[in-house]
Amino acid sequence: MKLAPPAIWILLFVSLNGCAKDRSLAPPPDSEQITVTVKVPKELKARTMQVMYRSATCKRVTHGASGQRIEVEGHHSIDVQLQRQGQSDLYQASLPKDGGGACKWHLANVIFGVVYADPTRFGANVIWGAGGGVVVIFDHNNSPMGGADTEVEGDLTIKKDYYPRIDEEFLGPYKKTISLVGEGSIYRSYEALNAQQVYFEPVLHSDFIVYSAGPKVKKKGNYTVFTYPDGSVVADGRGGPDFQKLQSIRLAAESKK
Predict the structure, then answer these.
(1) Which residue among 27, 36, 78, 231 has the highest number of C-beta atoms inside a 10 angstrom radius?
(2) Residue 179 lies in a domain
(3) How far, CA to CA in Å, does 180 sit from each of 119, 166, 203?
(4) 106: Cβ–Cβ under 8 A, 6 or more apart, which residues?
């Protein structure tokens, strides 16, 4: 169930093996707050933010390859909706770093980002694909998406370029998706141990769409075909569009204006 932020701290209960304490999240009134802000382009929307707290006090039990009992930090994830700030394009959520309670929860990581508000604007059967995601880690543990690609000191400001990708897949069930192409992987991942402010500004270049179509027959040498905004066609076996090529096409076009 997705809860609005004011209700989270009242209604959240965590079920963890081996923890006999009151498991509720109870941030102290003076807890340091971490504020996450996303500047959302008009064609996109802020996705629901996944927030994970961890506890070294209330551990959970797992088992190794030989069946041995292993105790690790307890954790629990909750969903938080970023709230629009007035009539602006800024969406925000404030999270207590100290989760409090008998389990002494601490904020471990958040996963958030942007998605297309209406994928069907690209066609009746078009669905959301991937991209536009951000992971921020506030402790020394990996997130559900793995470790961090970048470590930062202090507050974190992310401003990155993104391009629309319309993709058709023919092998297996047919599907057509709209995704966001950015530099690096689907999720940009940061470790920001001392951040109080996290700001994410995706810059969407809507006029520079890259199209891709997977092979219709599974055969050696049949690759996904990418058609770039300048009309060039590439099928070189890569799994995704060439971000630097997209940047070059856009910058060249803008320089001619």
Answers:
(1) 36
(2) no
(3) 11, 9, 11
(4) 53, 54, 55, 97, 98, 99, 138, 139
pTM: 0.87
Which domain covers residue 39, as residue numbers?
5-163+184-206
Are 192 and 234 found together in one domain? no
Q: Are residues 145 and 242 in the same domain?
A: no
Does pLDDT of 116 surpass 50?
yes
Top-confidence residue, 227 or 4: 227
Whether residues 214 and 225 fall in one domain: yes
Q: How many domains does the chain have?
A: 2
What is the structure's pLDDT at 3?
Answer: 44
pLDDT single digits (tens) 184-209: 989 999 999 999 999 999 999 999 99
The two structure tokens encoding residue 3: 């809860």
Asked if the structure places residue 122 within a domain, the reply is yes
Position 171 in a domain: no
What is the dihedral sign for C-alpha 67, 73, 79, 82? Answer: negative
At 21, the pLDDT band (50, 70, 90 cuts) reads low
